TrEMBL record:
SUPFAM superfamilies: Multidrug resistance efflux transporter EmrE. This is EamA domain-containing protein. Keywords: Membrane, Signal, Transmembrane, Transmembrane helix. InterPro entries: EmrE-like, TMEM42. It comes from Oryzias javanicus (Javanese ricefish).
Length: 142
């Protein structure tokens, strides 16, 4: 059960990393340090590095997505509930995306975002805190 949760958390982290890579690869700003266009001979310093960095970020996006699906399927295999695994992966992805957005891009999150994340965490705690009773029937029993 614990290994399923850990796999689901890892899948959420990899999903957030894939989103970060996609934003870096497809965003309007060129990844890398900015150059001063006013300086003579320095206006094109990022042009030769621009495309390889975008391709690298695109490759990271594909790799992170492949690993995310691998960890997600392992989480499903080791978990007793697919709903619990799905919610854990989605919730952790939102949380990790918010943390990475703050660290990498300096994004500020408003009170509504924090309220949503708090409600997500409360829902995760409820899902992980409830135990299925042994006599409860499932859809397989019907």
């Amino acid at each position: 059960m614990l290994s399923g949760t850990l796999f689901a958390l890892a899948a959420g982290l990899l999903a957030a990393a894939a989103s970060l890579s996609a934003k870096l690869s497809l965003g309007t700003d060129a990844p890398g340090p900015p150059c001063e266009a006013d300086a003579p001979g320095r206006g094109a310093c990022n042009r030769w590095l621009h495309l390889p960095l975008r391709l690298l970020c695109g490759g990271l996006m594909l790799g992170c997505n492949a690993l995310m699906w691998t960890f997600f399927s392992r989480a499903l295999r080791h978990s007793s509930s697919s709903a619990r695994t799905t919610v854990t992966t989605s919730g952790s992805s939102f949380i990790f995306s918010g943390i990475l957005g703050r660290l990498i891009f300096g994004e500020n999150h408003g009170p509504l975002w924090w309220t949503g994340i708090s409600l997500t965490l409360c829902g995760l705690l409820l899902l992980h805190g409830t135990q299925r009773s042994p006599g409860a029937c499932s859809s397989k029993d019907q």
